[in-house]
Please model this.
Amino acid sequence: MRGSARTLPAIEVLALLLATALPLILSQFQVIFLTRLLILSLLALSFDFAWGQGGVFSFGQGLFFGLGAYVAALLATRADMTSAFVAIPLAMLAGLVVASLFGGFLLLGRRPASLIYIGMATLAASYAAQRLAAGWSKIGGQNGVSGVPFPTLGGADLEPGRGFYYVALALLVAVYLAFRYLSRSQFGLVLAAARDNESRVGALGYRTAPYKWLVFALAGGVAGLSGGLSAFHEGFAGPNLLGVLTSTQAVLYVLVGGVGTLAGAVGGVFVMEYASLELSTRFASAWPVILGGILLLVIMFLPNGLIGAVISDRARMPTFGDRRAKPKRVPVDVSEEETVGSASA
Amino acid sequence: MDVPRLAGIAFDVLSLSSILVLLVLGMGIIVSMMGIFNLAHGELVLLGAFTVYLAHKVGLGVGLGIVLAPIVVGAAGLLLERSVVRHFYSRPISALLATWAVGMMIRESVRAGLHGRSEVVVAPFSGTFAIGNVYLSQWRVAIVLLTVAVIAASYLLLQRTRVGLQVRATLDNASLARASGIATGRVYALTFAFGSALAGLAGALIVPLFALYADLGVTFLVRSFLAVMVGGVGSFEGPILGAGAVGLGSGVLPWVVAPVLADALVFVIAIALMRFMPNGLVHRG
Model:
């Protein structure tokens, strides 16, 4: 078995220390680049929480990301509402509300929806939102909303740079801890059980649909938060943020990093974006092809992502009772539906 | 509304539906047969379009290119099934993502090959028919007729031939089919190749209507999947009916509500329909 149960916390603490100290010695350009990665990490976390924890294949996280971006950008440019304490929470709220409505439609109700249906429906919704925004001239159409001013934080402008970096880092850490807590709580235990065998959990008296719905709504809120931050950081919100590209990007980060670990999602963003930055300049036109190839190899040969090579499967699961006890090997049913990041695959 | 205009709209709906049918036929066969949602399908369409462009470029002519496209793309599909898709039959979500990665490689290669430009491919014939006051593009009429022919041929292949019987048997019950001496692995590979060939043909036929650009396939991908799922997975006629329904919605709604809204509304209606009728319009008992 790879790594002990302590490997993951060690990685997390080390990453946090590095993330806190690094900007002090990096250039402005590098800090801005890293801020972008922190914001994208929120997006990746939102997908990882929905799919890796909730087992809801939300293939349309771009919808909530783009929505948050539009809300923040429109508030700032049309209503002069640049206060970070108002615009960013509203972007998050927009994601949360739309995701809870959409998720209620998809997940609640007498008939449970299939995994593939949820994937295709969320992807289609994200695509539809992109087309709607691109054709809607009142919100900028194809050009989107540009020239978003800097957000203000207690009277001062929050310019991209160290200040913005630490705000984004604080939000990322808060979301990470919240998701981490939820996934290791009783709540997370029900979700983990439902991922393994949904009908058995149902037989134990749990209705899993409301759990999944809550996860989906929270993930939508975090994606909205990420989008709102992104609009302020890049000064821009456009239809592509809502669409298939953003949605698949979120999935690919998590896949490369490792599904269901949260740390893997953040790691995936850093690895992929850093590789893109380094390699895209060197092999300009071939890079996207290489990226596709890398993804294919990861999906085929590393079903647990990069982090799967470092930490054990057990570190990703909520535990109950004595943490030091040896895990019992339970024979796993070979079911038709695939389970999340199945190690046996 | 006057009659010629109405007839014009009806023809637009018909030709849009035929294009969608062409696109979803191959996709529907692959989904129904193996439960694989092939996100590289759009790129197989693109590959078909690219084949026609290449044939035109080296002087073989657009007509021959259209004949070659299904053969080339069918071979590509066979390769894709043998190398990648084969590993994912029990893991549909991973299959979704793996085929997306493959699609990305094809799409970006084509983008690099075209240097980011879009290229015009001229149809073999480009005049119009006039029926009274109604003018119909000859190439669109040809697409409608070819679509009917392709549906008929696929139907006959599946229902009337020995290969079709093996395919249907594998679809119904793979282990029983295997026990009866059908090489299901080969059936899967051939079906995937056949579905891919149809995608290639679709790409070859539609490229004169649009232009050849790297995102040609992706444009139709989501719409085609909705058509398959609305129509119903697991039947031959389901995806065709679904494509008709989505085509009808896309053609008629812009006349009822603002076009921008109509475009998104088609997706919303499709998502809702799938939720309430998870088995699709055509349910196979």
User: Anything to note?
Assistant: Chain A has one domain: 7-316. The first helix of chain A runs from residue 7 to 21. Confidence is low (pLDDT under 50) at residues 331-345 of chain A.
